[in-house]
Amino acid sequence: MSGxxxxxxxxxxxxxxxxxxxxxxxxxxxxxxxxxxxxALAKPARDVKIGDRLNVTNDSGLYEIEVVExxxxxxxxAAAQKLFSESEESREARAKLLAEKRVMxxxxxxxxxxxxxxxxxxxxxxxxxxx
Length: 131
Hints:
By secondary structure, the protein is of the alpha+beta class.
């Protein structure tokens, strides 16, 4: 997968390594401060190279990874996992967070039915979206 390139844009690498579904989402995550390169906030156009350490936050949690390989294309998940190596502490922290979410889901009460039109109007009024 790696060519002769020694560096590439971080948003493109995050997309190719399947941390984000689209390159636009990867760029937005960089803009929102969810991606750190060697401890500093990373802008989407910042170059990433082999050996860089990244902290990436997405829906699955916080990943502490090291760039192992560069790729311009988005391949299958098995190939994308070869682009980085994740620290053991990061894996354990995400597993712990997932277990906590599962336990909390047991105590979460879901509504018995969809909100009625009246309920929706009351919610909109409460949220300040009254027409």
